[in-house]
Amino acid sequence: MKIGITCYPIYGGSGVVATELGKALARRGHQIHFISYQMPFRLSAVTDDIYFHEVGLSTYPIFQSHPYSLALCSKMVDVARYEALDILHVHYAIPHATSAILARAILRGQGMEVPVVTTLHGTDITIVGQDPSFAPVVTYSINASDGVTAVSKALRQETYEAFAVEGDIAVIPNFINIERFSRQAHTDFRERLCPQGEKILVHVSNFRAVKNTPHVVQVFFNLRRRGLPVKLVLVGDGPDRAATEHLARELGVHQYVRFLGKQDPISAILATSDVFIMPSGFESFGLAALEAMACGVPVVCSDIGGLPELVGGSGGGFLCPLGDIDAFTDCAARLVEDDVLRETMSRAARAHAVRHFDETTIVPLYENFYRAVRARVLA
Ligand code: GMT
């Protein structure tokens, strides 16, 4: 198939999933056309089967801001037409689904039918999408899509509750490449960071408010106060990073904390870490937690959103009540103190990721979904 994929190209879960999906589909013989304003950050190079089409950001004095949704739509029409796309798959509803629906209508007027698949990722439904200035457009765009997927049952449920959506939403979870994400007990990074054999507590996020990054530092502070030999590594960047760094200084633990900023690949850091912490206020799936589990890192995360679907029953992590710093501290402390528990949970985390979330299991679900949507639309 010739598949157009639109996503946000910057650091963030939906862009990662879309890019890894495109790369995996190309390896399976499909031709992939990424359409966005910038090359997706995990797409290091285009290949024979992967193309990148940049949406121009030219502006005009009377515009209040650049009408990206329209420029994207025009680029979708152009690429669909001249590359003869079989399907357009957009990741994150705003504004991608809306641009695609308009592109589909324009193409239909030109005698070409290109079905639109929309994947809902998280904040497009739980936060931004519910803003009254977007909600009617998001509802319309979801209902007008030819196929809709959500990354967890929790997100599907949230969509039904927050929007007047009646059609089916298929659940297709996030996935990882289990060869790229695997355990590496000893690395130079670990030797340098932990010369006394300290354990590494790690957090990866875009430091948005929903990630509760100050809670990570509070839990770490509690662990140090209990006298546990532990270092904290924070990967990523975003609006709450400065406040989180400030808190580490205020609590006097900054000398044990490393803020690494945006890193790619993150597999090398996760592969050698001991405990992954995710105290998010909401997480539709929790891709970073899955990446940690695939690297054999037990996770301690909030019992919210899609995280119980990922971690529950895996034996590879603890689910803690949202915002309960003491519960997070207790679970992380058990993992730091008890080598046998940590190693058992590390193996269980990796096994769970391999069994349920490898790309060879999940990517075919998208392929089948595309085929079913095309068969229905073109019948
Ligand atoms: O808000 C973010 O964390 C980024 C966001 C995105 O759409 O880029 O991530 C969401 O999509 C990921 C991939 O499907 C999920 O694994 C994350 O759980 C989800 N984030 C939230 O729901 C907060």
Would you mind describing this structure in some detail?
This protein is α/β, with parallel strands linked by helices and 379 residues long. The protein folds into 2 domains: 193 residues, Rossmann fold (3-Layer(aba) Sandwich); 170 residues, 3-Layer(aba) Sandwich (Rossmann fold). The protein has 15 helices and 13 strands. The two termini are 17 Å apart. The model has no long low-confidence stretch (mean pLDDT 95). It binds ligand GMT. The site of ligand GMT has 20 residues, from helix 1.
Brief summary:
This protein has 379 residues and is α/β, with parallel strands linked by helices.
Protein topology:
Elements: E1 2-6, H1 13-27, E2 31-36, E3 50-54, H2 68-83, E4 87-91, H3 96-109, E5 116-120, H4 123-126, H5 135-144, E6 147-150, H6 153-162, E7 170-171, H7 188-193, E8 199-204, H8 213-225, E9 230-235, H9 241-250, E10 257-261, H10 267-270, E11 275-278, H11 287-294, E12 299-302, H12 307-311, E13 317-320, H13 325-337, H14 339-357, H15 359-378
Parallel strand pairs: 1-2, 1-4, 2-3, 4-5, 5-6, 6-7, 8-9, 8-11, 9-10, 11-12, 12-13
Helix pairs in contact: 2-3, 8-9, 8-13, 11-14
Spans where pLDDT lies below 50 across 5 or more residues: none
For the secondary structure, the number of strands is: 13
Strand pairing plus helix content: what structural class? alpha/beta
Bound molecules: ligand GMT
- Overall geometry comes to elongated
| Main sheet strand line-up | 3-2-1-4-5-6-7
How many strands, what sense, and barrel or not for the largest sheet?
Answer: 7 strands, parallel
Indicate the percent of residues in helices. Answer: 40-55%
Q: Helix and strand string, N-terminal first?
A: EHEEHEHEHHEHEHEHEHEHEHEHEHHH
